[in-house]
């Protein structure tokens, strides 16, 4: 009696004329599934619970016929195709109540270990099924999901299986419709339940280590062969087999340790140095004796513990300087320490002066107790002339066990500073080193300076030689004949040894008006000398010239006597020749000898007026 649809036919006859336009409906094909109201044309279902799963489509032939007229009843027909729409009115059903599965214990976690299926006769989304494991025996080890294509329940492994621990598992699985139709709740529960039994198959498995990772500790410098720990692996299969151990060699670092193949004990194979390597990380492999191909691996970490074997030292070489005008208590350098050992947390360094330096009044060490110390002055002022360098022994001690200490000698240089404490100069090294020049650059600079000095010396020497040659070779200088005459003469009678005419030539003498060897103070006109007779004796001529030069203090001694008494340009005492001396010794003042320094002290004592010379006091 459920309404399906309504059909309607029209008649072109006059409805007011008899029954010619009155239509009656009937079903010619489609019974007993459907019925039609003869007056209204409404089609309804004729059978209850029509099942789409039995028949989905129906073809109904309907006739419309008028009630009469002169020609009798006339009829028309039409075909109606009716398709049943599916509803979720069928629950899923398992084809059997128990499913048996066999699963190897070596199955991986997350892998599918079996499938079960429930049947739902509905179509489309009404046939979608959801599977769930009923809480119980296998809820923690297994999981089930739905395959969207086949609507099967896929059982997966959540945890590894172990035949030696448990050989079988039993649990229940429930299948239910994912989309429910509330109109059919009264029909009954739309779900079904089945039992799943899983048998675990024993497999030949590799050994299993007792820990997922091993961590060990050993002190550095531990003797070779010392056992520092052990690893353990077992064969958990029913027929237990022995296990062998060996190190997974990958690099040379692994050679620092060895392992006993039977016991699994790890020992040192070389001396360990924490300052070189603080931690070792390698793998150990365990294999079954019955089947060496079955192996397992575990990671081993060995931490090397530090032994206090190195004393602390000054962290960097300091270039310490102190001003000559330094005051007592002035900090001239802050020092820090470093230890080659890997210092533990809270490591403390202490600073102090060595025993032999504690009594000296120059410098002291102030320990700030924060792993730093200050070098302080202990006196008022320092002198570079008295001592340019000071060597300060500083003792540094650590707080580890056993206690280690070292004595570090600091070099302190005395420098000249201004009133603000800014260093002005220390020495050549202090000037050049801060610039950052390398040793090669310093050598090159010094070499250039030496070359320049050599060039200057050569230039001065050449100029002096040239000047001397000019004076000595001049033909206008009468002295030339005497200086360059190297042969011994034959006396007064020898008139052939040299040309005496140059000495007697008045013109040559008159032309020599100005001195050429030194700059004259004033320009003097030449003195008029009487002409020389040709028969004048040479001795008289020389004596005459000598007397003229003796009474003239500004004239140079051009004769041979003046040349031999020449003292040179570099003498502080100037010329000591008696030619230029005064007539009497009493007129000379010798007090200036006291200003010439200690080298002329004896001469000052000999010629001084206040104290007479005493030869016994001369050392």
TrEMBL record:
Name of a matching Pfam family: CADH_Y-type_LIR
Residue ranges annotated for the Cadherin domain, each copy included: 1-94, 95-209, 210-314, 314-432
Gene3D superfamilies given in the database record: Cadherins (2.60.40.60), TCF3-CBD (Catenin binding domain) (4.10.900.10)
Entry keyword Signal: yes
GO cellular component entries: adherens junction; catenin complex
Major subcellular location class: membrane
InterPro entries found in the cross-reference section: Cadherin (IPR039808), Cadherin-like_dom (IPR002126), Cadherin-like_sf (IPR015919), Cadherin_CS (IPR020894), Cadherin_Y-type_LIR (IPR000233), Catenin-bd_sf (IPR027397)
A single MF term (Gene Ontology): cadherin binding
GO biological process: adherens junction organization; calcium-dependent cell-cell adhesion via plasma membrane cell adhesion molecules; cell migration; cell morphogenesis; cell-cell adhesion mediated by cadherin; cell-cell junction assembly; homophilic cell adhesion via plasma membrane adhesion molecules
SMART domains: CA
Topology term for the membrane: Single-pass type I membrane protein
Bilayer-spanning residue ranges: 431-462
Keywords, ordered alphabetically: Calcium, Cell adhesion, Cell membrane, Cleavage on pair of basic residues, Glycoprotein, Membrane, Metal-binding, Repeat, Signal, Transmembrane, Transmembrane helix
Cellular localization per UniProt: Cell membrane
Reported function: Cadherins are calcium-dependent cell adhesion proteins. They preferentially interact with themselves in a homophilic manner in connecting cells; cadherins may thus contribute to the sorting of heterogeneous cell types.
Name this protein carries in UniProt: CAD12 protein
Organism: Mesembrinibis cayennensis
Gene coding for it: Cdh12
């Amino acid at each position: 009696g459920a309404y399906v649809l309504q059909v309607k036919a029209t008649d072109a006859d006059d409805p007011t004329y008899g029954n010619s336009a009155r239509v009656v409906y009937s079903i010619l094909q489609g019974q007993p599934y459907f019925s039609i109201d003869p007056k209204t044309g409404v089609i309804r279902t004729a059978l209850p619970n029509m099942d789409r799963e039995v028949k989905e489509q129906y073809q109904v032939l309907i006739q419309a016929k008028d009630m009469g007229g002169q020609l009798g009843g006339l009829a028309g027909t039409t075909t109606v195709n009716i398709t049943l729409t599916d509803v979720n009115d069928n629950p899923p059903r398992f084809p059997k109540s128990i499913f048996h599965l066999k699963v190897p214990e070596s199955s991986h976690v997350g892998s599918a270990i079996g499938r079960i299926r429930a049947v739902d006769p509905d179509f489309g989304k009404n046939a979608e099924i959801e599977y769930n494991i009923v809480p119980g025996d296998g809820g923690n080890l297994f999981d089930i999901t739905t395959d969207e294509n086949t609507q099967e329940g896929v059982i997966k492994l959540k945890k590894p299986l172990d035949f030696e621990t448990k050989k079988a598992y039993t649990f229940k699985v429930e299948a239910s419709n994912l989309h429910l139709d509330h109109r059919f709740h009264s029909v009954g529960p739309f779900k079904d339940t089945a039992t799943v039994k899983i048998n675990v198959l024993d497999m030949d498995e590799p050994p299993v280590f007792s820990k997922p990772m091993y961590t060990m500790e050993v002190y550095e410098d531990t003797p070779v062969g010392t056992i520092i720990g052990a690893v353990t692996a077992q064969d958990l299969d029913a027929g237990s087999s022995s296990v062998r151990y060996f190190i997974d060699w990958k690099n040379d670092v692994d050679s620092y340790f060895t392992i006993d193949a039977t016991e699994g004990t790890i020992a040192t194979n070389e001396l360990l140095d924490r300052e070189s390597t603080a931690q070792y990380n390698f793998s150990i492999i365990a294999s079954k004796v019955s089947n060496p191909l079955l192996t397992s691996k575990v990671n081993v970490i060995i931490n090397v513990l530090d032994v206090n074997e190195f004393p602390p030292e000054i962290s960097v070489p300091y270039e310490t300087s102190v001003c000559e005008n330094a005051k007592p208590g002035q900090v001239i350098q802050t020092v820090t320490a470093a230890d080659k050992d890997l210092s533990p947390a809270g490591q403390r360094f202490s600073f102090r002066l060595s025993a032999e330096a504690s009594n000296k009044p120059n410098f002291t060490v102030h320990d700030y107790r924060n792993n730093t110390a200050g070098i302080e002055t202990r006196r008022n002022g320092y002198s570079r002339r008295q001592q340019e360098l000071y060597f300060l022994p500083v003792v540094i001690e650590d707080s580890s066990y056993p206690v280690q200490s070292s004595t570090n000698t600091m070099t302190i240089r005395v420098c000249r500073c201004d009133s603000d404490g800014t260093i002005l100069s220390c020495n050549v090294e202090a000037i050049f080193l801060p610039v950052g020049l390398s040793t090669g650059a310093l050598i090159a600079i010094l070499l250039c300076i030496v070359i320049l000095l050599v060039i200057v010396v050569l230039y001065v020497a050449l100029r002096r030689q040239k000047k001397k040659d000019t004076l000595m070779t001049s033909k206008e200088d009468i002295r030339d004949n005497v200086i360059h005459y190297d042969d011994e003469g034959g006396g007064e009678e020898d008139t052939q040894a040299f040309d005496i005419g140059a000495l007697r030539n008045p013109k040559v003498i008159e032309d020599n008006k100005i001195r050429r060897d030194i700059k004259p103070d004033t320009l003097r006109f030449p003195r008029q000398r009487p002409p020389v007779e040709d028969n004048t004796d040479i001795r008289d001529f020389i004596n005459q010239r000598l007397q003229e030069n003796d009474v003239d203090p500004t004239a140079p001694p051009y004769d041979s006597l003046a040349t031999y008494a020449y003292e040179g340009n570099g003498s502080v005492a100037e010329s000591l020749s008696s030619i230029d001396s005064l007539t009497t010794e009493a007129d000379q003042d010798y007090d200036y000898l006291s200003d010439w320094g200690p080298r002329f002290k004896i001469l000052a004592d000999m010629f001084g007026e206040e104290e007479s010379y005493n030869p016994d006091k001369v050392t």
